[in-house]
Specification:
Blueprint (H helix, E strand, L loop, with lengths): L17 H9 L7 H11 L4 E4 L6 H11 L9 E4 L3 H15 L6 E4 L5 H9 L4 E4 L1 H9 L11 E4 L2 H6 L3 H8 L7 E6 L4 H10 L4 E4 L2 H5 L4 E7 L5 H12 L4 E4 L3 H13 L4 E4 L5 H13 L4 E4 L1 H4 L9 E4 L6 H8 L9 E7 L4 H11 L3 E4 L4 H18 L4 H13 L2 H15 L12 H17 L15
Parallel strand pairs: 1-6, 1-7, 2-4, 2-5, 3-4, 5-6, 8-13, 8-14, 9-11, 9-12, 10-11, 12-13
Helix pairs in contact: 2-3, 3-4, 6-8, 15-16
The structure holds adenosine-5'-diphosphate and magnesium ion.
Adenosine-5'-diphosphate binds next to helix 3.
Length: about 475
Amino acid sequence: MTIEDNSLQTFDDFGLHKDILKGVHEAGFRVPSPIQQESIPYIMKGMDVIARAQTGTGKTAAFGLPALHFSRDVSGVNVLIIAPTRELASQVSDELYRLGRFAGIRTVAVYGGQSISRQVDLIGRGAQVVTATPGRLLDHLKSNRLKDKFSPSIVVLDEADEMLDMGFIDDIEAIFGYIPEERQTLLFSATLPKEIRSLAQKILKQPVSIDVIPKEIATPTDILHRYYVIEEREREEALVRLIDTDAPQKALIFCRTKKETDLLSTTLISRGYVAKALHGDMEQSQRNEVMDSFKKGVIDLLIATDVAARGLDITNITHVINFHIPFTPESYVHRIGRTGRAGKKGTAITLVTPLEFKELSRIKHASGVTLDYMEVPTIHQAKKHFKSELLKKLENQPVHEEAVEIMSEFTEEYDVMEVAYKAFSMLLDQRRIDGPNRIGLSSRKVTKLLYNSKKQSHSGRKHSYKPGKKYKRR
Ligand code: ADP
Ligand code: MG
């Protein structure tokens, strides 16, 4: 379904209050994104909406701006947003605070691990917009702690597919048992599996459905997709080599399990990289800390599971690295959506073993992205690259006064060259380029394997590739 007037191009055309528009302006949004263009007009009319659009396309502001608009002169909770994780809830709450602050709108995020009385207190003190995770919200509702403080007229289910993944559907239904029938209900999601559609039938009334076709955004042209074919046992070496040669400013590395994120971060740290793991089992304060230091660039490698990282909005991620190929094309698209945001260039790197060619080709077909096959650089190439990077850094390095002082002190005792050699050695010790010379399968072998796997998938025969003993299929 499309909006009647296709000429709607600016935020000014939606009929939003000027104080809300000021927030939009201050946030630096200039043009509404497709999902915003299509859904805001209906939401402004008070209609229920079920909307699907890819991660990173501005769904928060799509429901948030009208919701803020309608909350201006309301005292008490007017909007309830249900989000699947604590991170997403606080992210949404922050974004809405940022957009609504000129209209004096108060927001509060409600999730587990925070003081219950403080939350109730904040809600009671007149926050108009409450963003909550299902568990904690249901807890509040069941215990009747919110009493008459709580009758939202707009309810939003955000990232609904993720709620399904996390097993929250029953909780959601229970929550709606406590919410007034008289309300506007909005459902936003990156995908709409049938369970979500049937939930929508129960909670939405004659909704308008809006579908921003993934293609438009799923294949941002600013992302370069590369894959490397390796043996199972080479994963870590391949990753390290690629980090050394690509020198990512900010890389998000995806693992399949929590345990793997821990193992990998330990390995990387021990090899001199500034890395941290992010997963669902960590304490909230710990997670915030990790997220913060990644945002600020204190750490440049964040190792995460899908659940921990999906939907998180971190800008300036230069690289998304799939340490393991994701299980589904959707997951691939979700993951790489973390880079190349807001018109910035990004790189998506995927490590693949021959036994994972099937997943690789599924991803290629379903997402329509072109993944370029590349060979892992040899140690020789990595060292050469490291040298040229070092040279660049040296050229741009300003000379500190203190360094001049130290140098003149040292050269009373040592030869200048000797000091220079030692200084370079210290630099090299900080980040040793090592590992095996060759990593991964030769391009010749890969071509052959790919050819065979295509042939066999047509004839329906089994894969002929015999992995080494160490290989274990997930
Ligand atoms: P989604 O929920 O669809 O994954 P978000 O709502 O988190 O996406 O938005 C992704 C990023 O885009 C956020 O940083 C948000 O501030 C920004 N954004 C949203 N709308 C616009 C816009 N119209 N112009 C520029 N940036 C936008
Ligand atoms: Mg979102």
